[in-house]
Amino acid sequence: MSAATALPPMLPLSARLRATAAPPIPAARRWAAAYDGAAGPLLDLTQAVPGYPPPPALLARLAEAAGEASSATYGPIEGDEALREALAADVAATYAAAVTAEDVVITAGCNLAFSLAMPVMAGSGEAVMLPTPWYFNHRMALEIAGIGAVPLPCAAADGFVPDPDRAAALLEANPQVRALVLITPNNPTGAIIPPETLARFAALCRARGVWLVLDETYRDFLPGKEAPHGLFADPSWRDGIVQLYSFSKSYCVPGHRLGAILAGPGFRAELAKSVDTLQICPPRAAQKAIAWAVPALRDWREGNRELMGRRADAFARLMAPIGHRWRVDALGGYFAYLRLPDGAPDALEAAETLASRHGLLTLPGPFFGPGQERHLRLAFANAPEEALADLPARLSGLG
User: Fold this and answer.
1) Residues in contact with 332: Cβ distance below 8 Å, sequence separation at least 6, in sequence order
2) What is the predicted pLDDT for the residue at 356?
3) Pfam family example for this protein (predicted)?
4) Do 145 and 300 form a contact (C-beta atoms < 8 A)?
5) What are the start-end ranges of the H helices in 125-194?
6) Are strands 127-132 and 148-153 parallel, antiparallel or unpaired?
7) Which of 245, 270, 297 corresponds to the end of one domain?
8) Which residues share a beta bridge with 331?
């Protein structure tokens, strides 16, 4: 092509988007393109996806609902009443609290729930506090919205459970913070925040005039049957606490994109503006099917909670013989957070080597924020125990 006919340069793109990191999971999976299969089948522990399908009854209801004419129409902005009532009843039973459908907004996935909720609390020149290591999509969503992120460093010595005292000091030093986000069980570490620690965070945020956002995507996989916390027992939670929830993991329907926000009336009034603009309504067919599933599949969900507990136990058991080199710094929900052995390369190089030479796909710590160069995240929930049996050999292959 001659200079006279050369295409003009591409027009400028958003500096904010160009400064946002690329999606990490596709980047990690590209490393596996060089894998020759020598260590056995590819073991992909990158993305948190259920390693088993929905029950046939749920699949049948999804198919039936998809064929109904009403599923092709717009629905209520805050979600179909049946699903809001079902989730509210489930939350009320789980937390022993008076939660109603009026507290619930259904969204097209929990990532969208986070993206919709953040601008209600913070805007340009303001910030949200994220414990590090953080969930990379939370950080990306804030960057895209032009909202700052203040890191709250968490220590391996504490099992990566965030420290309210450290948060208090950081809030004092960063008055622009409008919300503090906690994920429990955590992504990426798997750390479970004890109820008493959550209560301390709630008191801190209330005293500072800062919203507390609880992302409880993985709460259905907590060990034991006790309430995750008692914060919903106090009716004033609606004035300062927002809960995020995902149906994807609990019902094995990530492709149907359903999440939820629980919040008080003042918050929801402003949230409705974002929801109407960016979503209009959640997917109708999936809402109909999941409204049935929430009460009907309670025993099935309990079985999956027990299954995840067994996989966590199996992971810990498999790691024990190499624990003198590969330390499990945190474990819970869907995830394990491993510290690289002394002498091993930093996380980015280690993750690429494990993928390209040993067929083990993990996510390196730097994908989850600053100070994570010596850690890898493994989503052990993706794989059955027999597949995890190869894990110690593949990790040891790093040298």
Assistant:
1) 185, 186, 189, 190, 191, 192, 222, 223, 312
2) 95
3) Aminotran_1_2
4) no
5) 136-145, 164-173
6) parallel
7) 297
8) 336
Q: What is the pLDDT of residues 253-284, one digit of tens each?
A: 999 999 999 999 999 999 999 999 999 999 99
Q: Comparing C-alpha atoms, which of 252, 214, 264 is closest to residue 94? A: 214
Q: How many domains does the chain have?
A: 2
Pick from 361, 359, 371, 264: nearest CA to 48: 361
What pLDDT was estimated at residue 27? 86
Residue type, 231: L
Burial environment of residue 118 by CB neighbours within 10 A (0 to 12, 13 to 18, 19 or more): buried
In a domain, 76, yes or no: yes
What's the rounded Cα separation, in Å, for the pair 185 and 376? 17
- Average pLDDT in the 290-317 region? 96
Q: List own/partner pairs for 291-296 with CB under 8 A and 24 or more apart.
A: 291/80, 291/82, 291/83, 291/85, 291/86, 292/58, 292/61, 293/58, 293/61, 293/251, 294/83, 294/86, 294/87, 294/89, 294/90, 295/86, 295/89, 295/90, 296/57
> In terms of domains, do 172 and 194 share one?
yes
User: Region 40-49: what's the mean pLDDT?
Assistant: 91
Written as six digits, the tokens of 242 are 């927002």
Going by pLDDT thresholds of 50, 70 and 90, the confidence category of residue 319 is very high
Domain check: are 188 and 315 in the same one? no
Whether residues 138 and 245 share a domain: the answer is yes
- Rounded Cα distance between 211 and 242, Å, is 8
Q: What is the pLDDT of residue 224?
A: 85
Do 293 and 356 fall within a single domain?
no
Q: Rounded to two decimals, what is the model's pTM? A: 0.95
Residue ending a domain, among 251, 277, 297, is: 297
Domain that holds residue 81: 56-297
Q: pLDDT digits over 350-365, tens only?
A: 999 999 999 999 999 9
| 8 within some domain | no
- Do both 93 and 192 map to the same domain? yes
Secondary structure E strands in the chain: 43-44, 104-107, 127-132, 148-153, 177-183, 211-215, 241-246, 259-262, 327-332, 335-339, 360-361, 363-364, 375-378
Q: Give tens-digit pLDDT for 164-221.
A: 999 999 999 999 999 999 999 999 999 999 999 999 999 999 999 999 999 999 999 9
- Asked if residue 45 and residue 97 are part of one domain, the reply reads no
Residue whose C-alpha is closest to residue 253's, from 228, 231, 277, 286: 286
Q: Which structure tokens are listed for 40? A: 């056995």
